[in-house]
Amino acid sequence: MKKMSHQEAAELYRSMLRIRRFEETCHELYLSGKIPGMSPHLYIGEEAVAASICFFLNKDDYIISTHRGHGHCLAKGARMDRMLAEIMGKETGYCKGRGGSMHIADVTTGNLGANGIVAAGLPIAVGAALSAIYRKTNQIAVCFFGDAASNQGTFHEAVNMAAVMNLPVLLVCENNHYGLSTPIKKTCPTCNISDKAHGYGIEHTTCDGMDTEVSFAAAGEAVDYVRDKKKPYLIEFITYRFLGHGASDNRSYRTREEEAQWLKKCPVKNFRKKILSDYKIDSAKIESLEKEVEEEVSAGLKFAEDSPYPKPEEVMENIFAPAAPGGGQ
Amino acid sequence: MSIMTYRDAIRLALREEMAQDEKVFIIGEDVGAFGGAMAVTKGLYEKFGPGRLIDTPISESAIIGAALGAALTGLRPVAEIMFIDFTGVCMDQIVNQIAKVRYMLAGQVEVPLVIRTQGGAGKGYAAQHSQSLEAWFCHIPGLKVVMPATPRDARGLLKSAIREPNPVVFIEHKVLYNEKGEVPEKEELIPIGKADIKRTGKDVTITCHSRQVLNTLSAAEILSKEDGVECEVVDLMTVSPLDEETIFNSIKKTKRLFTVEEGYENNGIGAEVIARATTKIFDYFDAPPARLAFSNCPVPFSKILENSILPDTKKIVEGVRKLLS
Hints:
By secondary structure, chain A is of the alpha/beta class. Helix content of chain A is 44%, strand content 10%. By secondary structure, chain B is an alpha/beta fold. Chain B folds into 2 domains: 2-183, Thiamin diphosphate (ThDP)-binding fold, Pyr/PP domains (Rossmann fold), CATH 3.40.50; 196-324, Rossmann fold. Chain B has 12 helices and 14 strands.
């Protein structure tokens, strides 16, 4: 199993904490009416997945994210301030307020976009992997998707194509057990989502996405496999979203007892304990790291709140790119 | 000038663009050694190899999605969808992904991607292999839709489409593949977004595209000889975005408008042309505009039925005569 150094453990904790605090901030903002539109889909409880996978990615590796995508975006290196501005619909956001929570991405960090259509990112990631081979680079492409996405046709088309073409794409299934309200047990006949990979003849594994050390080790092996072998790999993390699908979801489809069991596995809290005990990182260092994250949140909030809204007269910009000279326009 | 078929002209454009830019590649079903279901890519595999003519499973969503992933990461894919009817399978990738990603990301990315496909009736292929579905794509912001009628236009427009930094749905017509025409020896880029006046006239403007340009030109010849009516034939070439300037200038001259298309009449290209013209330059009209399109009926198999509702030269002549009467 891939062991992590003290330095790595601290970095991983910071990555997870950034996601947790960012999402808690979004939740508060939404409840206070400062985020327009649909409630953001929060990643709280699933932090170990994005943090572990992105830990092993290079800046020029690609990710494709989902409707529950803030965690992926942050872990791949996006700034909190511009993300918060985007979610609040401000001009300074990564998408100048045109995308919002579900489409937020910083392309300079290799994020090719979050997606509001379940499983739509999978073939796009396959194309990014094909492109890496075509351009003879060492890049890999990662596609995050949920358990329920594995019931979409695009999942099967993408896995099949990646397998038959030997493409360096890492398929990261975040199995949080529910497609909105519907338990995956009702919609998927296999025990694990990774079982579906077996049918396409690609390597796959299922691991505990609530255990940060396990997630880290499995993520490292998966990324190495894809990069070294130039082949697809499906890694499934068993995880849980602590909140509802969105803020208005009253979670009537699951019991408070079930939730309590999962809350005990909180990856952020448990990993904090672990790095103090097993990795002997002193508490002063942890506290200073936590203070830095808090400062990032409050500075981000101030930036987002102080930022202007986009101008309606610019609403039609960026539908098309201007044609290059000598081009076809 | 050399004489070549529409098919050969499209292949020439592909060959030229692949030779001048190694980022250009073709992805689709049977496009490699087999040479494409319509034989358009024949011979390219031998020249450019399997790395640049990528055969795929029958997975239209994955073809278009993979093309998008490649376009976002520095390549210029030309994705082939064998029949336009099959775009129903991958509409999410076209409508929600390709068309919108640049806007949703506020211009952080460009999407230089061509979807080559073919449509049209007239060959007895029945309801799922004969449609003209261009209006679907015209409805979506973020897509350009190009439909050439002649070999020269096909070559020049496809080259421009491949060089575009935006997604282009390039729709060929299955009946045109063996039609011959002049193509310049020299490289020629024909601009996207511009209509072409294929015949000048003073009495009535006829807008048309794709195969119906040929029928309209035949009809214009008949109307000139038999009725002394001079039609101005405006080949739209790009059906989205429409070249309003060329269309409107023609109507301002002729004061009359007749539209021809092979797509279903409901919410079609003719509906859009007429709506724009009558809402923007109504005062120029001397007669109500009229349109000819495929009836709002699935394409029937039996030839006698298919021909009964497929726009053709005779129906265009009759339609124009009625408009002028």
